[in-house]
Amino acid sequence: MCSCAHATELAAHRLHRMFTLITTMRRGSSTGLSAAWARYATIEAARLGTSTLLRDDRIQRVLIVRNEIPPAFVEWADR
After folding, report:
1. Which of 5, 10, 33, 57 is 20 to 30 A off residue 48, Cα-Cα?
2. Do the Cβ atoms of 62 and 75 come closer than 8 Å?
């Protein structure tokens, strides 16, 4: 059985492994783009979300960050 402290540590570790995307747009807002709001479990999944976002002409670049406070930089993706 896991103790509460161990369960909290596992949950925190899982949170740190998650990735999210930050977009830079030419015009408008990314609030309507589900890929911009999703959380990704792996860097490969985040890169797939990035490629989905970059198909939209309004997106200039996408920043992949770890889902932490403050977000930790992982990589940029440009057109």
Report:
1. 10
2. no
